[in-house]
Design goal:
The structure holds three protein chains of three kinds. Chain A has 19 helices and 20 strands. By secondary structure, chain A is an alpha/beta fold. In chain A, the strands form four sheets. Chain A has a six-stranded mixed β-sheet with strand order 6-7-8-3-9-10, sandwiched between helices. In chain A, strands 16-17-18-13-19-20 form a six-stranded mixed β-sheet, with helices on both faces. Chain A has a four-stranded antiparallel β-sheet with strand order 2-1-4-5, covered by helices on one side. The two termini of chain A are 49 Å apart. By secondary structure, chain C is mainly alpha-helical. Classes of the chains: A alpha/beta, B mainly alpha, C mainly alpha.
């Protein structure tokens, strides 16, 4: 095989599933040892492209076009030949590490199976090799024996096992489909570093599929940008980001680095909300028969204040307690110690909040698909908080209130009669914001409210939030693990780790001059989108 | 694919329901009349399905038997739902709590007693009859619905819109009615048809061994029991009631399958 | 794991205790005076008094309960009023008919259902799947005692492959005994196998959709290999629940079906005792049946933990 020939060539790939077109005329190629990034938002077809390479498409798929790998035509091979290649010459890593492993088999067996499948070795030898691969991916055997089960590992650790399975036989090509999307920032950095080292160490080519431009800019040599099943732009990474030749590329770039316009407000003297040495604990499942029940302290004596009209960010990785804190503040989670004050008055800490207090605080959740009762229409969904009013509005007042609230989030009156499944993710978050807004609270808690949205939609929702804050003098508690988003929409940031606030500063200072070790670590781990020559010329 | 089963199922169910309802006002012949002279007649224009060993018209027996089976099964499902669903919802609303544990453990204990054993216990104390069958099958239905409601409710409690409702100041009871119950109704309907069909089989079994409706009230199970000794000579006496049971249960199951698919929100969206 | 076993054992014991209370209250407390109930309306006063003394009814209910339970532990199930023989003796022989029948039926049901369910799931939507679904749809609708009657008609009377009823006893040889249990077991197994096939199929289909199946294919496993090595064990978990429940239905069904085949099992004993109002026998037999069901549930719970390592707790 000619060393200059590309390792993988996809030519004019067209895919439709049960008649619905999914991919149109996709062509791309990758050289041995290089990294190709495929970028796209949800529905762009990037995952389907990966599955097409592996020939693991769902039933009802019709494919035209060719995929050639290492000189062989994958599209015309029979299943048993493909089985030889999968896992052996091409490895794949998927997005959801929590469900990617068989829950009833231990990790040693799962890695060894891949090895034993393609190499003629005894099962004992396969296990030995498996142990070696697990060490290589950062799971040393003394801490993580082969007999561990997946449910005993964290998300990042499970992803390492999946990577171990994929690279066990040193494949020529590794396809990684959103491998770090479900992981924390620091874990993401570690996994990306691992992938990079594996590529460099063995001349393995990698296709990295993601929606995150910053991630791909740090890892990929070449990138391909997809939308609605088509390739819109391609080229070496630096060139593509510098030139932003295609309008969609430009739009994506701008959305990723979008900063909404915000007016800074004058901070009043008295805080709106004050948490004083708050403690929240969970009982842990009993390990032994007769021992005392152990408690996990999710929030460990946290004190913080939020002033009217300001936007405060609360960042931390999963498990740091930020969601528990938010729920405790909203009276949705029990509190074991400390106090919460609203406008100087103490709120009961046993989840029985009075209606006056609940009226002042509302919440927007992360998952637009589980935030609404699928059986209710939008009008009823949006007006649920009106239950908190002592004098509920009359029918007419209600309808006009619903209408005006929907309009203020960019939707229309007709939408109030529809069911929630008729709306996209971004629209649902708008409806969620409408629901939070309708009783004109003083504070809205946004718990990862934009994390599940596509980049372009996210920018629009952030704009909406910024303008609403100005109009209605809202205070926000913006909880997120995504530092770049927090930077663009908050006045102050609190960094949380293991149930405690480790640093609190105004936003710009925190990002430019972090003090605490952990903050520095978080910032270092976050991938940075490079400056684009195209944009600086414009401004 | 399964929508195909909705129509045949509905047709069969309607057929037997109608037969049962009509029997309240009219049957071709009086089922309490014993007319030995006319026994063992083959189907003819007068007796569409023939007669049994006592000369009773089989069609009429079937119709009244349908009434017995359906009545017992429906009331038993009613008992199961009316008691079981609130229990399940209460358990889910108090998940992890003492109340939840208590309900679940009691459930498990009732499961230890198959409906037959409960019927035996009741009959041994109070004597046999259709009411006993209803109570026995009904008691056994309670943990079925409790367990189903609880499991379904638990998964809904975890959804964010329940948190939003709590943030709107609603308490567990209100949430159970406004949010949880409407979202499990589909499951309950489907399970209801399943339990209905199981109820018919259970009633037939109890009648077969003499623990169900007593003579002179006809029941399909007892018709089968009576036909046992005659099966070699007059097999139709066993085949006809048996087929009636099979078709009713089949109809209900097809209906349940069809309903499950028809009510599936994912499929609904595409219409 | 130990914690899990301990908890299940506690539940087992609690269930037995509550069950015994329920049985005792239903049969000795509720009917009012068991003695006059047993003897009927026309009994003479002194006969009733004699029976009352014999049954120890002058003692308090609590004391009677404990002496009954104590008796169960030592194997003294009391004396049948109708037959004047120790209940334990009557039960022992008959138990060895009913229990093996239920187990035989469970085995048959499993042997049919597992391959059928796997077959249907692997050929989803195809002709094989539709056939299996159609057959099972019929199978669940058939009352097992009716099916038994039809089997007798065909296999015993017309074809003469089996006898129409009766049980020669285990002394007559294992095969002979099993042969006479075969038609009843098949009759019992049919509806249960149909249910189990459907459960197996749907459980397997659910598992086949899971992410880890995609990982398995990405390793290079063929569809079939992935199904056998990864899907099946995961699919077993809900299937085990159903099998545990099934045993109670099978036992109840066995009781009923003994009527059709003239098997000398617990069924005939219990129904005759009900008819003759022999509460002592009914009490003990019901308790025994409950014990069998509860024990099987317990074993199934243990099997769960063996199949699913998540239940064993984390280390």
């Amino acid at each position: 095989m000619n060393a200059n020939m590309p390792l993988l060539v996809i030519n004019n790939l067209n895919l439709s599933i049960h008649g619905t077109p999914i991919l149109g005329d996709v062509s791309l190629q990758i050289e041995a040892g290089s990294v190709l990034g495929i970028i796209g938002e949800s529905g762009s077809g990037k995952s389907m492209t990966a599955l097409s390479i592996m020939q693991l498409l769902p039933l009802g798929s019709e494919v035209t076009g060719t995929i050639s790998f290492n000189g062989q035509l994958l599209t015309s091979m029979d299943e048993s030949a493909l089985c030889d290649i999968r896992g052996n010459d091409i490895g794949m890593v998927f997005q959801e590490p929590m469900t990617a492993l068989n829950p009833v088999q231990n990790i040693g067996e799962q890695v060894a199976e891949c090895i034993a499948l393609h190499k003629h070795v005894t099962s004992k030898q396969a296990l030995t090799e498996a142990a070696a691969v697990l060490e290589k991916v950062g799971l040393p055997n003394d801490e993580f024996p082969l007999s561990r089960y997946p449910h005993e590992l964290s998300g990042g650790q499970r992803q390492r096992v999946v990577i171990a399975i994929a690279v066990a036989l040193e494949p020529k090509l590794l396809i990684a489909d959103e491998p770090t999307t479900a992981l924390d920032v620091t874990t993401q950095a570690e996994i990306l570093a691992l992938l990079k080292s594996l590529v460099e160490g063995s001349n393995m080519a990698m296709i990295l599929i993601t929606h995150d431009l910053a991630v791909v800019s740090e890892v990929a040599d070449h990138i391909v940008i997809m939308r609605d099943g088509r390739v819109l732009d391609r080229g070496p990474t630096d060139a593509v980001f510098n030139e932003l030749a295609h309008p969609y590329t430009r739009a994506l770039y701008e959305a990723s680095s979008h900063t909404p316009q915000r007016n800074t407000t004058h901070r009043p003297d008295v805080p709106l909300v004050r948490l004083d040495k708050l403690v929240c604990e969970y009982p842990m499942p009993r390990k032994s028969l007769f021992g005392a029940r152990r408690w996990f302290r999710a929030v460990n004596e946290v004190s913080l204040s939020v002033y009217a009209g300001e936007s405060v960010g609360l960042v931390g990785e999963s498990g740091c307690g930020k969601s528990t804190l938010a729920k405790a503040l909203l009276g949705l989670s029990p509190v074991q110690g400390g106090s919460i004050e609203l406008r100087g008055k103490q709120i009961h800490t046993d989840m029985v909040l009075s209606r006056q207090i609940r009226r002042e605080m509302q919440v927007v959740f992360q998952d637009p698909y589980s935030s609404f009762n699928p059986r209710h229409r939008v009008a009823r969904l949006v007006s649920e908080p009106l239950f908190l009013l002592d004098n509920p509005p009359s029918r007419d007042e209600r309808s006009s209130l619903i209408r005006s609230t929907l309009e203020s989030v960019g939707l229309s009156e007709e939408d109030s009669n529809k069911y929630i499944h008729e709306f996209s993710g971004g629209q649902r978050q708008r409806i969620a914001i409408a629901r939070a807004l309708i009783i004109k609270p003083a504070l809205i808690v946004l718990d990862e409210a934009v994390s599940a949205l596509d980049v372009s939609v996210r920018a629009q929702v952030l704009d909406l939030l910024a303008s609403l804050a100005d109009t209605h003098k809202l205070a926000y508690l913006f909880i997120s693990h995504d530092l770049s988003v927090v930077r663009n929409i908050t006045d102050r940031v609190l960094v949380m780790k293991d149930g405690q606030i480790v640093e609190r500063r105004d936003t710009e200072s925190l990002f430019t001059k972090p003090q605490h070790e952990y903050t520095k670590k978080l910032l270092a781990a976050a991938p940075q989108l490079p400056q684009s020559a195209a944009l600086s010329i414009q401004t | 694919m399964k929508l195909r089963s909705l129509v045949p199922g509905a047709v069969l169910v309607l057929l037997f329901f109608s037969a049962a309802l009509i029997s309240y006002v009219w049957t071709p012949f009086d089922v309490t009349l014993i007319d030995i002279k006319s026994r063992f007649q083959s189907p003819d224009t007068m007796h569409w399905l023939g007669t049994d060993h006592f000369g009773r018209d089989l069609l009429s027996m079937l119709m009244v038997g349908a009434r017995t089976s359906i009545f017992v099964a429906i009331v038993a499902v009613g008992i199961g739902m009316l008691v079981g669903v609130p229990l399940g919802l209460a358990a889910a609303a108090n998940s992890g709590n003492l109340l939840d544990e208590a309900i679940m453990r009691t459930n498990d204990m009732v499961f230890a007693f198959p409906a037959l054993l409960i019927a035996i216990l009741i009959t041994a104390s109070y004597g046999p009859g259709a009411v006993n069958a209803i109570i026995a099958i009904g008691i056994f239905n309670i943990p079925v619905f409790a367990r189903l409601s609880r499991a379904a409710a638990l998964s809904i409690w975890k959804r964010d819109f329940v948190l939003a409702a709590r943030a709107a100041g609603k308490n567990a009871v209100r949430i159970s009615f406004e949010h949880i119950l409407p979202n499990i109704t589909n499951l309950l309907i489907v399970q209801g048809t399943i339990q209905f069909s199981l109820g018919i089989l259970a009633e037939a079994g109890l009648s077969f061994v003499g623990l169900g409706a007593q003579p002179p009230i006809p029941s399909w199970g007892r018709m089968l029991a009576d036909s046992q000794t005659l099966i070699m000579l007059e097999p139709q006496l066993a085949l006809i009631p048996g087929l009636a049971i099979v078709l009713t249960v089949l109809g209900l199951n097809l209906l349940g399958d069809g309903l499950r698919d028809w009510l599936d929100p994912r499929l609904r969206r595409e219409r | 794991m130990l914690h899990y076993i301990f908890k299940r054992t506690l539940i087992l014991l609690a269930t037995l205790i509550v069950a015994s209370l329920v049985v005792f209250v239903s049969l000795e407390v509720v009917p009012g005076d068991p003695a006059s109930y047993m003897l009927g309306l026309n009994a003479q006063e002194d006969t009733i008094a004699a029976l009352r003394a014999e049954l120890g009814l002058d003692k308090s209910k609590v004391a009677r309960y404990f002496s009954w339970v104590g008796g169960l532990f030592t194997g003294d199930f009391g004396t049948s009023y109708t037959y004047r023989t120790p209940v334990a003796d009557m039960v022992r022989d008959r138990m060895w008919v009913s229990l093996p029948l239920a187990i035989y039926a469970l085995a048959l049901s499993t042997l049919i259902a597992f391959p059928a369910g796997v077959y249907a799931a692997s050929r989803r939507g195809g002709a094989g799947d539709t056939t299996v679904m159609g057959l099972t749809q019929l199978g669940v609708a058939v009352p097992n005692f009716w099916f038994a009657m039809l089997l007798v008609l065909l296999f015993a009377i017309k074809l003469r492959w089996f006898s129409a009823g009766g049980f020669p006893g285990w002394d007559a040889g294992f095969f002979q005994a099993m042969k006479s249990l075969t038609l009843p077991a098949v009759a019992l197994a049919l509806p249960q196998a149909s249910i189990l096939t459907r459960v197996m199929r749907s459980s397997l289909l659910d598992v086949l959709n899971e992410d880890f199946m995609r990982t398995a294919r990405a390793k290079g496993l063929s569809r079939r290999q992935a199904l056998w090595k990864h899907a099946l064990r995961n699919a077993m978990i809900p299937v085990l629940t159903i099998m545990g429940l099934q045993f109670s239905f099978l036992l109840a069904g066995a009781i009923i079906i003994e009527n059709v085949f003239y098997l000398p099992g617990l069924g005939r004993l219990i129904f005759q005792s009900i008819a003759s109002r022999d509460l002592i026998v009914v009490e003990s037999v019901v308790m025994l049946l409950v014990l069998a069901v509860v024990l099987v549930t317990f074993v199934v719970d243990l099997a769960y933990a063996w199949v699913d390592p998540r239940l064993r707790g984390t280390r």
